[in-house]
Design goal:
Layout: E1 3-10, E2 14-21, E3 26-33, H1 40-57, E4 64-72, E5 75-77, E6 82-85, H2 98-103, E7 108-112, H3 113-124, E8 133-138, E9 142-148, E10 151-152, H4 185-188, H5 190-203, H6 208-215, H7 224-230, H8 234-258, E11 262-266, H9 274-287, E12 297-299, H10 306-319
Parallel strand pairs: 1-4, 4-7, 8-11, 11-12
Antiparallel strand pairs: 1-2, 2-3, 5-6, 8-9, 9-10
Helix pairs in contact: 3-10, 5-8, 7-8, 8-9
């Protein structure tokens, strides 16, 4: 009898679900709006309805599920297999995957979404031969997941890898989304880049960047910065130099502390490609202790699908597959 793995990536906006066979072949996947306002019971019922439908469409009436894995946007206590705090969902103090597991008579496992994304890149991305890696996600905030010897490294309380809250400016510094100052997220999140850009736009209305915003009916977009860098806009060049500097400081610290084989960049800002990767690789090589401390910084491969893959990988690891 074939056995299956279920991987679920719960986000504040969408829930992505994937079914794999025991050989890690993808059987089906889907995405549905989260609609957090409905509450856990209604949302989990909808997940079960979708999963049952995915199995039924493939003629699998009574699936033998080996395990369920779920990535969640917040703090997870791995020892108790329970959530601690999920800011957008407030599914706190229980295992949100357990209901799915009971439905399929299977064990269920959860972890923080950044860790799950890193595991997905490790097992299914282009760097799957690396035994250790770090994945930095440059989105609204700065997320990070660590894989060491093929397993998620969570530390004593599953709080390891919170690189977004690494201190990169000890004296005051830019304000982070958490409210504290000097954190990497205060310089290298999409939120921070937008804040800095809008401050400069107010002072430099003659810049190309201001022209891009005008062309876009007054709406700013972080993707305008790489465009301006390529077109030698002074404002964009200044913003990008600052962004790259602090990102390099953070990445060099990760290299020095964890010595991974590779560091991957994902999230919206990583879409700048070599415009970001080339200077970061050059700068980090000069910042680390020695050549053996350094590792290449590359673009992540799986994009928004990393969480589904990682949740399936977690399920497979826990099921011994």
């Amino acid at each position: 009898m074939h056995r299956y793995l279920i991987g679920i990536d719960v986000g504040g906006t969408n829930i992505k679900m994937m079914i794999m066979d025991e050989g890690y072949g993808v059987i089906a996947e889907t995405s549905v709006p989260t609609m957090a306002e409905l509450g856990y019971e209604a949302i989990s019922d909808r997940m079960l309805l979708e999963l049952d439908g995915m199995f039924a469409e493939r003629g699998i009436e009574t699936p033998a599920v080996a395990a369920v894995g779920m990535g969640l946007p917040g703090t997870v206590d791995k020892r108790s297999n329970r959530t601690v705090y999920l800011a957008k969902l407030r599914w706190d103090g229980f295992n949100p995957a357990e209901k799915i597991g009971r439905h399929y008579h299977a064990p269920s496992f959860i972890d923080n979404d950044a860790n799950i994304n890193a595991l997905g890149e490790y097992q299914f991305g282009t760097e799957k031969k690396a035994d250790s890696l770090a994945l930095l996600t440059l989105g609204t905030g700065v997320g990070c997941g660590l894989v060491v010897n093929g397993r998620i490294f969570g530390g004593a309380a599953n709080m390891a890898g919170e690189a977004g809250h690494m201190i990169v400016s000890a004296e005051g510094g830019a304000i982070c989304l958490c409210g504290r100052r000097g954190h990497l997220e205060g310089y290298c999140s999409g939120t921070a880049l937008e804040r800095s850009a809008k401050e400069m736009l107010a002072a430099r209305p003659e810049s190309l960047l201001a022209g891009y915003v005008k062309e876009n009916h007054g709406v700013y977009d972080n993707r305008m910065i790489p465009r301006g860098v390529c077109e030698k806009d002074e404002v964009c060049l200044e913003l990008w130099e600052r962004y790259v500097h602090y990102l390099s400081v953070g990445i060099a610290n990760i290299m020095t502390m964890y010595n991974p084989e590779v560091i991957l960049l994902g999230g919206g800002i990583s879409g700048a490609g070599e415009l970001l990767l080339e200077p970061v690789n050059q700068k980090t090589a000069k910042m680390v202790l020695c050549e053996r401390s350094w590792c290449p910084v590359k673009g992540a491969a799986l994009g928004a699908r990393a969480g589904m893959y990682g949740a399936c990988a977690l399920a497979g690891q826990e099921a011994g597959l």
